[in-house]
Amino acid sequence: MAFLYNIFISLLTFGMKVFALIHDKTKKGVEGRSQSLDKVKSAFSKTDKVIWMHAASLGEYEQGLPVLEMLKEKFPQYKILVTFFSPSGYENVVKKKHIADVMCYLPFDKKRTIKEFIDQFNTELFFTVKYDYWYNLLAELKNKGTKIYVISALFYERQSFFTSYGKWFVKQLQKNVDWFFHQTQFSLALAKSVGLIKSSVTGDTRFDRVKQLRERDNHVDFIAEFLGENKAIVFGSSWQAEEKIAEVVSRKNNTVKFIIAPHDLKRVEHLKNIFPDALLYSELQNTQSSTFNSQILIIDSIGLLSKLYSYADAAVVGGGFHDAGLHNILEAATFGVPVIFGNHYKKNPEADDLISANGGKSFPDEYTASEFVLFLINEENREELEEMSQNAGKFVDDKPNSTKMILQKILA
After folding, report:
1. Is the pTM of this model over 0.70?
2. How many CA atoms does the CB half-sphere of 260 hold within 13 Å?
3. Of the residues 196, 204, 334, 374, which has the fewest C-beta atoms closer than 10 A?
4. How far apart are the first and last CA of the chain?
């Protein structure tokens, strides 16, 4: 199986390099990986003690960050390395302020490539977030004596571990991972069913992260002026379905304000075609305040969404109406905002929990979701909105401090 895995990695590498010729996002990942070795060579010596976090993408980075920050507090003398697999993670984070000494793409998981990369520094502690496993990487780190953890681990039934050919993958994890910190009891039970017994349930570290959002300054210029005394619905990381909800609701209710932050800024032009009278956030500073009476504001910049939720009376979060995957619903819920989303969220157990707490609702299509949004923002249903708001905030409040539990185990 190791032979087949290495063939797969070679094919993956070749395939991504070919696809990069026609796909900009893949091109960024391929070109970025060609710089990773030079980045660690220039920043680290071979004796530097390093704490290394790997995240597949942006969501996993946010999940692992509370643990990384606390480890840095405990071991300020250690250097920090953060690697990504996906450009959507790396490109979003590298431009912002962060605690990493080096931030780069994870090299392709070829034995020789990985060994050369790891040999440039001394990894004292490594953790990957959720379920991004690269087996040559884990084996080489363990050969170096590194402590290896999985943070916010999430096992589900369709993973390779639970197939007829999955024994090799399980054996690698048994041999190389020191401990799994699971998000849910179900994930723990699945892991133990295949022999991954070095495990415990510590919950989802994203709750720790979103609780921190309340403590910062969440002011966003011009938003209060745009909203005035009106209710606000924030459409976060929207795709076509969520934008259709905005279109339907805006036709039937002209008293509520809409803030739309698309998943991809390439959608801004499309949104302007749907809502020709909408304002662009980038234009607000040059706009007369008298024109703020437009119903819809389109966010054509990145990095504002989690702050915008603090202004919302309700939120519609994207990704759940198709297989792209539901985006972060906790960033809205932490501010006591009811969350509406599609029902494609198998890898998001927090969605079921939020629904059970009556702090959010999911729908099979954008039309039934639109009807509920209209119901929720109707002044006659104020009590329903207030109850869901309180439930959403309490749902986040009641979660344990996962980061503290994880650190206690690691330090022990």
Report:
1. yes
2. 33
3. 374
4. 35
